[in-house]
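RECORD TYPE: inverse folding
INPUT: structure tokens
STRUCTURE:
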């Protein structure tokens, strides 16, 4: 079960496309130019056009240089993306210094580069850019040229009002950056987890398909091998015992028999249980068999007098229940019970263990990717190759939950009255009995 939290590398080294930043900067250049011209000639306010358009032209020149130096489809290293966004903050701060500082209504645009960083770059880079933006606002609150205004009039904002604008700007920048970062991080986690789910399901379905391939190969090769063995046996009678030719024919016949035995074993991989309906309890027993050597007693109980559901062997169900059962075995003290109940409308599999149970702080979040905390007793859990790397319920549980829900199941988690964790999986009976057909349709869509 995978359960590692996302690391810095999960952002990828190159998330931002150069074309994205270039397009945003062209949009900023156009907007800044239009705003300056409207203020100067539309409102007839005096704007220092020379310095202002020099800064705007610098951004345009940078865009042209980037177009010539780098491909527009190239994704940027994090350091270069941080540098370019930092430049955007400083360029805008320069324009604001020339046009009234924080008294300029466009001061709120300082939030934009930090928001872009929060959506696409790791937290450290976003904090750095946020610090640059906050430092720029402090300087703009102290130093700025007069705000362009009506001739003969001078608009002087009270110091308290300037301080209020600064507080509002910093608060807005912080809130939007944190909110954007968290939403983007959750989106990345979910995307990665869904990709892992698709990969797991594809692998299980591929292994399932190999069973059919093995059966087809055994059937097709069986007849020619039988002909080879029979021909070699008949040719043996034409040579004396001990002759080289007879020994070669005996070798051919023995190797042919060996090949037929191998094909017989391959055929057994695709026995009836792989392709035809099996009772639900037999399917659960097949899953539990792989975990009976972990030093924990696994008990399977049937609690219904009605006819037991017949379920086709389904990779999603096998993997999903197997993952949940493995987790129960890893955290159990000595015993795990699997209770099967069904009626005419539904079927339920309830897995419970005598371990420490789910931690209260995570039980409501289990099923989300990378939720890995589970309460533990004083003794460490029994080591296992997967659990050693997982650390608890994490991506593996998310994958299991996703796969089971694809077959129509609903999962419910709780702690038992006498301790231990309880996982309940319930299907509408018609959905469970047709699960294989649903899986086949899903596989066809991916193909």
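DESIGNED SEQUENCE:
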């Amino acid at each position: 079960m995978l359960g590692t939290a996302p690391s810095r590398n999960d952002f990828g080294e190159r998330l931002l496309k150069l074309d994205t930043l270039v397009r945003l900067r062209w949009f900023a250049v156009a907007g800044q130019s239009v705003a300056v011209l409207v203020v100067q000639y539309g409102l007839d306010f005096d704007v220092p056009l020379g310095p202002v358009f020099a800064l705007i032209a610098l951004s345009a020149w940078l865009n042209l240089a980037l177009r010539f130096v780098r491909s527009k489809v190239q994704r940027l290293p994090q350091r270069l993306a941080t540098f370019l966004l930092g430049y955007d903050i400083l360029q805008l701060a320069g324009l604001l210094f020339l046009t009234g500082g924080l008294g300029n209504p466009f001061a709120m645009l300082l939030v934009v580069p930090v928001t872009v960083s929060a959506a696409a770059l790791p937290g450290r880079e976003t904090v750095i850019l946020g610090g640059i933006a906050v430092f720029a606002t402090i300087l703009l609150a102290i130093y700025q040229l007069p705000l362009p205004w009506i001739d003969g009039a001078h608009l002087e904002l009270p110091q308290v009002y300037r301080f209020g604008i600064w507080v509002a700007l910093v608060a807005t920048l912080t809130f939007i950056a944190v909110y954007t970062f968290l939403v983007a991080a959750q989106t990345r986690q979910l995307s990665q987890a869904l990709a892992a789910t698709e990969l797991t399901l594809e692998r299980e379905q591929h292994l399932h398909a190999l069973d059919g391939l093995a059966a087809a190969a055994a059937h097709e090769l069986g007849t020619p091998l039988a002909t080879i063995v029979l021909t070699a046996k008949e040719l043996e009678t034409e040579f004396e015992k001990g002759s080289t030719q007879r020994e070669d024919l005996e070798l051919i016949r023995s190797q042919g028999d060996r090949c037929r035995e191998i094909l017989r074993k391959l055929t057994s991989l695709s026995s009836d249980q792989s392709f035809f309906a099996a009772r639900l309890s037999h399917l659960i027993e097949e899953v539990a068999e792989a975990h009976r050597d972990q030093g924990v007693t696994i008990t399977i109980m049937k609690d219904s007098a009605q006819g037991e559901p017949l379920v086709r062997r389904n990779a999603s169900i096998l993997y999903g229940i197997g993952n949940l059962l493995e987790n129960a075995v890893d955290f159990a003290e000595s015993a795990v019970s699997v209770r099967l109940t069904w009626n005419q409308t539904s079927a339920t599999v309830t897995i419970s263990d005598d371990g420490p149970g789910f931690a209260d702080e995570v039980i409501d979040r289990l099923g989300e990717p990378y939720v890995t905390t589970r309460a533990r007793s004083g003794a460490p859990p029994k080591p296992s190759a997967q659990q050693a790397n997982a650390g608890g319920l994490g991506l593996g549980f998310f994958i299991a939950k996703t796969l089971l829900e694809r077959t129509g199941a609903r999962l419910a988690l709780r702690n038992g009255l006498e301790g231990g964790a309880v996982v309940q999986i319930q299907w509408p009976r018609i959905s469970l009995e047709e699960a294989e057909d649903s899986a086949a349709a899903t596989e066809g869509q991916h193909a």
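NOTES: The first strand starts at residue 278 and ends at 279.
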